[in-house]
Amino acid sequence: MEMSGWIAVIALLLSVVSAVIAWCSVKQSKRQNEISIHNQRFVIYKEFSRLRVDLMTIGGLNVSREVLLDFCKVERLSEFYYGTELGADLTDYFMQVDGLLRIRDRMHEAEKRNNPNFHEIQNEFLLLEEKCQDLGRNLDSSLRENCDLCDQDGSHEADVISGLGCRLGCHVV
C-alpha cells in the first residue's frame, strides 16, 4: 500500500474515533442537561413540600410567611421546569395559600376586636384551608409524576441523599 493509502486509512480511523467521541460528548451533555433540570425540579418540589407539610401539620393558623416566600422564590421558575400548565397550578397554589394567610390575619384581628364577623371569617378560612389541602395533594402527585430522572436500576439516589427519601414513579432515561 502506498503512503497516500496509509494516510487515508489513518484519516478514516481518526474520523471514526472523532465521531464516536462527539457522539459520547452529545450523550453526556444531554444527560447533564437532564440532571440540571431534575435538580431545579427537585428544589421546587422541596419548597412546595415544605409549605405543604407546614400547612398539613401545623395548619394554616401557624404557617409562616417566610416559608411561603421561600416557595414563592422557586415557584416563579416552575413554568420553565414543569411546563405552563403545572407552573400555573403552582402559582394558583401559592395565591391560594397567600389568600389563606391573609384571611388568617383578618381572623386574628377580628378575634382581638370581638368583631361580630369573626365566625364568618373563620368559616371562610376553613373552606380555603380545605381547598389548599386538596390543591396540595393534587399538585404533589403531578410534581412526582414529572420527576422523571432516575438511575438505570430505577432508584433515586439523589432523593435518598437529600433525606426526603421520596420514591417517585419514574421512567429510566
Structural overview:
With 173 residues, the protein is mainly alpha-helical. It has one domain: de novo design (two linked rop proteins), CATH 1.20.1440. It is 77% helix and 0% strand.
Which SSEs are present, and which pair or pack?
Layout: H1 3-57, H2 65-75, H3 78-82, H4 84-112, H5 118-145, H6 157-162
Helix pairs in contact: 1-2, 1-5, 2-4, 4-5
Summarize the structure.
The chain has 173 residues and is mainly α. Helix content is 77%, strand content 0%.
Distance between the termini: 46 Å
Second CATH tier, the architecture: Up-down Bundle
Q: Identify the overall geometry.
A: rod-shaped
Structural class: mainly alpha
Tell me the series of helices and strands, N- to C-terminal: HHHHHH
Question: Uncertain spans, ≥5 residues at pLDDT below 50?
Answer: 149-173
Radius of gyration: 25 Å
Task: Give the tags.
single chain, 173 residues, mainly alpha, de novo design (two linked rop proteins), disordered C terminus
